[in-house]
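Lab notebook page, bench 4
Experiment: in silico fold of construct C2
Operator: M.H.
Input chain length: 345 residues
Purpose: comparison with the prior construct
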Amino acid sequence: MFACKSGGGNSEPQNTELTSVALDKTSAEIVVGDSVVLKVVLSPSNAKNTLTWTSSNEKVATVNNGTIKTLARGTSTITVTSDNHLTATCNVTVTKTDLPYQLVWSDEFDGSTLDASKWNIETGGGGWGNQEKENYTGRADNLRIENGCLVIEAKKETYGSNNYTSARINTYSKASFKYGKVEARISLPSGKGTWPAFWMMGSNYKTVKWPMCGEIDIMEHIGSNPTMVSNALHTNDANGSNGRNWYSRKYFNDLENNFHAYSIEWVEKSNEGDDCISFYCDGVLTGGSWEPHLNSTVKNWPFNKEFFIIMNLAIGGNMGGTVDDAIFDNQILMKVDYVRVYQRK
């Protein structure tokens, strides 16, 4: 009698070659901070294969063995690839519900003097790196609170080695901010040679120096171009000194001697994982710039750290240009109704 081993039954051969790869989802919409697990469907199901997972935009979403972690608003394609180069994809859209802005810092200038707990007064001449013609002082002639406004007045007078005086204040070491909405309501002076500005500088400027620290010019105006408002960004790689800085200029009919609200919205990971700074005048978008999506560094995008606020009225200089002394027959006044900073909490 002989025993015979059967070759029938339902057993499947081992090491079967993989013929297809699929995912249980081909698209998914996920909220920032949430995660989802993708399941792989292999054919045949017993095929042996090593699978590799990738994300087309790791600023938006990462993937580890099928588990997607969402980081920022935007889109990303999740791909699974087998050893024999079969692939399957899932298109992921990441959404974000923005919280409302909340006021985190302000000065309404309702007191009788400048609030020293919020502002530093900068003084001196020397051009301030821009060949400016004024000497900044802290005198009431140049800097005061009046009728609920900060008033900076420029004057034609000899002071030290300068022929003009004005004022400049900042919040360095007293208030600095990273991301949010920064706004001031300002009445600009008129007159050829005036150069008022509302701007921000990186709080590390004393250690890394300008332009590596970064600069955000929320509003600049020059009296020689009465209808123009300028927005600009300065970085180590692209700045006013090398002429490659980003800037935008828009034109309005009633800028001078009228109040307007100048602001930025400075948003972390605004879209596709990239930061964005948008500029506004009275809520109207006047320009904006994005963080480089690839190879973002402190040299080309230093705007992911804290910055402080500066307000000043320069006379002449690289941007202010030639001064017409006849303008001083009238008062040259930059008035600030308020400065406010909002953040999403």
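Observations: The chain has two domains: 20-95, 101-344. The longest strand covers residues 259-271.
Next step: discuss at group meeting.
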